[in-house]
Amino acid sequence: MERTFAIIKPDAVERKMAGKILDRIEAAGFTIVGMKKIKLSTAQAEGFYYVHNQRPFFKDLCAFMSRSPVITLVLEKENAIAAWRELMGATNPANAAEGTIRKEFAVNIEENSTHGSDAPETAAFEIAYFFSQLELV
Ligand code: CMP
User: Fold this and answer.
1) DSSP secondary structure letter of residue 97
2) 99-135 pLDDT tens trace
3) What average pLDDT does this structure show over 31-35?
4) What's the confidence (pLDDT) of residue 118?
């Protein structure tokens, strides 16, 4: 079993699509072992996305991620990291495969509805950024 970290981003929560996305997550066989709805500050978004701090889109990305609440999740399944990335689809919804979450729900490359960890080390950092051990059940 592997764990990954996921976010349902402001664009999806604002458009009341969180329930549909959670339904897809459970239908795909993930167990939700942690879940909370929070409103990030700009500084908290910057800390989460620090690996992107030299990218031209960093400031806009952190403004977007802190403009309204998000739903943070820890998902468990065999090969959860790869499986969640496959279910989300490509970062840019224009390139996302049919049937993926981003193809169906995302607005554009920035407002792309969901986030997922890209490697085990990233997942460990991202899970610990939002959840304590006691909150993972
Ligand atoms: P995410 O998977 O959360 O990881 C980094 C985020 O940066 C990404 O999803 C998008 O929301 C955003 N992003 C990545 N590339 C671009 C880009 N070229 N322009 C704007 N936003 C981007």
Assistant:
1) P
2) 999 999 999 999 999 999 999 999 999 999 999 999 9
3) 98
4) 98
Question: How does DSSP classify residue 69?
Answer: -
- Say if ligand 1 is within 6 A of residue 122 CB: no
What single-letter DSSP state applies at residue 108? S
Burial class (CB in 10 A: 0-12, 13-18, 19+), 32: middle
Cβ(129) – ligand 1 distance below 6 Å: no
Residue 57 CA, ligand 1 centroid: distance in Å: 7
The H or E element containing residue 73 is: strand 70-77
Tell me if residue 115 is catalytic: yes
Q: Quick one: pLDDT at residue 127?
A: 98
Helical ranges in 17-135 per DSSP H: 18-27, 42-48, 58-65, 80-88, 101-105, 120-130
Q: Is the CB of 109 under 6 A from ligand 1?
A: yes
Query: What is the value of pTM for the model shown?
Result: 0.98
* Distance (Å, whole) CA 74 – CA 5: 5
